[in-house]
Specification:
homodimer, mainly alpha, 5 helices, 2 strands, DNA-binding
Chain lengths: ~80, ~80
DNA sequence: ACATAATGTCAAACATACATAACATCATGT
DNA sequence: ACATGATGTTATGTATGTTTGACATTATGT
């Protein structure tokens, strides 16, 4: 899961991490972590960031079908 | 944050919650909670669900700019 | 009447996103 | 040389997504 946040931030008059964080309601540390891909944000945060840059979520965050962990299938209920 | 998961599930040959959960690596309980909007999923889960139905994230999950809680602005660092 | 499948719901554990606070480096300017 | 702003990073705590297991209702079929 990669993203274009850093690039979009530079394209937006070199907006700072702190400024971006302020506008979308996050801390600058969280913005930094997202830019570095240390974790993928919540869907809500993804929408807020994408909306700020006038983009769709899939234009800002790039996802690949097998790109994640090979999801350990949950058990759900055993009967 | 509303979504079309339940509708899309019916359109896909009445796929069951458990079946959908199995295919995207979630439990049926989580699918039920997402359909009812009890919480918004992670971005990763949103991508997996949207991809399964051949849709974009914003086609499956509908987000409104002010729709959320009036996010209590974080402090970040005080100097 | 009994079984089974699909769904709702709940409580407790667990995983991870996010905040807060602190300290660090690097660049720029005075 | 000193200050300031932007970013990296780490540790700790809180909020919330997710699993697991259980029990319930409703419908359908035998």
């Amino acid at each position: 899961m990669t993203n274009e946040v850093r690039l979009l931030r530079f394209l937006a008059q070199d907006m700072t991490q702190a400024e971006l964080g302020r506008r979308v309601g996050l801390t600058r540390q969280t913005i930094a972590a997202i830019e570095q891909g240390r974790y993928s944000p919540s869907l809500d945060v993804a929408f807020r960031i994408a909306h700020l840059f006038g983009k769709r979520v899939d234009e800002v965050f790039h996802w690949q079908p097998g790109g994640d962990q090979e999801t350990k299938t949950p058990n759900s209920d055993a009967s």
